[in-house]
Amino acid sequence: MTHIIYKDTRIEIKEGQTVLSALLENSYDIPNSCRAGVCQSCLMQATDGEVPVVAQDGLKDTLKSQGYFLACSCKPETPLHIVDSKNNQQQYSARVLEHEFINDYVLRLRLKIEQPYYYHAGQFINLWMDKKISRSYSLASVDKLDDFLELHIRRIPNGVVSNWLCDEISIGDTIQIQAATGDCFYTPGSSKQKLLLAGTGTGLAPLIGIARDALAQGHKGEIHLIHGARFADDLYMHQTLLKMAEKYNQFHYHTNVLQSENLLSIEHQSIDQQLLDVAGSDLAESKFYLCGDADIVNKLKTKMFLAGASMKNIYSDPFIIAADGVNT
Question: By percentage, how much of the chain surpasses pLDDT 70?
Answer without folding.
Answer: 92
